[in-house]
Structure formats: structure tokens, C-alpha cells
Amino acid sequence: MNAASLTELANLYGSDKGTVGPTAECDAHNYTDVYEAYIERDRQAAVTILEIGLGVVGERWDALLVQGRNTGGASLKMWYDYFPNGRIFGIDVNPCPYLDNDRIKTFVADQGSVHELEAFVAASKGVCFDIIIDDGSHHPEHQQISLSFFFKKLKSGGLYFIEDLGRNGLGDHAKGRSASDKVKNTRSVLKHFREQGTFLQPNALLDTAYLAENIAHLNFHVPKCSARLAFKASIRRPLRTALRYKHDTELLCAIRKK
């Protein structure tokens, strides 16, 4: 019997990373196909994973996706099943010790606070990671602080993923709890590095020299749900289907460390 795919596990637990959200009304992000292309070869390995933002209810952050099949911590449960020999660490601003088990350990930390991230490192005894996923607040300052802080805790050859990139930074005229008027959005900061070799300013990165020296490559991905189907047909050519998307609408970034 074949093991369940990452998409099947995401859908089972109600994670929005899959193709079906926690309820019929919740859109899914379709990230799991992208993830699996990167990580499937390591499925049986003793990988160490960190996920930032666990989707749990609490006083410090209202996790709107905890409904339907998602009873909290859906992606932790997904990683637990997908990597049978893996260790999974998670941090969230809300405590969720009920998710802890033989291979999952959760910690309370604000990803935008260096002090709290340092406390997590101390509490986790300085563990280093093969895979890090940022599915936290999606606030660009928080994403950039977390990236520059945790990239030093990523093993050589490891992968760092940032989810839900948006037009939510300085100059984007975005509003809401994930918007910032102090730094450029994370997608534009990282795209500038990929294209120009420097990080777009202003940003909240802590150590740009370390990042620049240790990023092997980075790729942006557009899940199917954010792409538009375009149909082309002519007398000489059969009906064809193509996925198209607008510039700067990529939602997921994958970064490989040297």
C-alpha cells in the first residue's frame, strides 16, 4: 500500500496547504505539491523540521482557520505522518502543549521578537534544522526577522520556505494585521536579491551579509489556485490550456542554503 501523499495528509487534517481547506468555504493554497517536489526524497530520513505559526487558538492571535477538519495544528499533524522518522518543532504566539507527542514539541514565541526567538533556541538546546517553514503572521517585518534569525539555524543544504507572500509592505497601501508601512514586502526584498544581489531597502533583515553569503538559490512559486486558466485555440492548433499569472503574485518562496 502506498503511503499517503502530502496533499492527502493536508486535506485529511484540514490544513490550507493542501487542495481542500478545513471547510468548503475556506480556500486552499495548493502548496503541498510544491513542497513534495522538494522534500519527497527525504521522506524516510531523520529530518528535523521547524514550523513557525501553528494555527492554534489563543489570546495573542486569532487563528481563523481552526474550524471544520482543522482542530488546530493541522500542518504539524501532516508533517508528523509524512516524515515517520522526523522530529518536528513548532513555535506560535499561543501555547499548544496538547499537540506535543513523541516527535512533536511546541514552544511559545513571537516570530517578530529576537529576544523570544533566542529563548526558543535556548529551550530547544540549539537544535539545527533541515527544513523551516514560515507560516506565521505573514507580516513582512516578522518574515524578514525570522528568515535572517533562523537561516543561521538551518543546516547546509537545508530548505527555508516562506508562505503567503503578499503586497503588504511599504508602498503597497495594504491594510490589516499583516500589513507594514515600515519595510518593503518580503517578495520584493528577496526578488531584488535574486536579480541584483542586494536586498531591497528598507527591510527588517538582521544580517544581510550572512544571508547573501549563504543563500545557494531561491525560487518563487505560484500555486494553481492563484493562476488563471487561459485557453488558446486556432485552426492550425488544437485547444490548449496554459497557467498564467500576473507579475509579483507569487505566494511561496523556497530558499536553499549552501
Structural summary, described in words:
This protein is α/β, with parallel strands linked by helices. It has a single domain, classed as Vaccinia Virus protein VP39 (Rossmann fold). 25% of the residues lie in helices and 21% in strands. The chain is built from seven helices and nine strands, in the order H-H-E-H-E-E-H-E-H-E-H-H-E-E-E-E. It has helices spanning 6-13, 32-39, 74-82, 114-123, 140-150, 186-196, 208-214; strands at 48-52, 87-92, 104-108, 129-134, 154-162, 215-221, 228-232, 240-244, 252-257. It has a seven-stranded mixed sheet, with helices on both faces. A hairpin with a 7-residue loop joins strand 7 and strand 8. Helix 1 runs antiparallel to helix 3. It is globular. It starts with 5 loop residues before the first helix and ends with a strand. Mean pLDDT is 91; it is low at 226-237.
Helix and strand pattern: HHEHEEHEHEHHEEEE
Q: Overall pLDDT, averaged? A: 91
Shape: globular
Helix content: 10-25%
| Intertermini distance | 36 Å
Task: Please tally the β strands and state the result.
Answer: 9
Rg over CA atoms: 18 Å
CATH-defined superfamily: Vaccinia Virus protein VP39
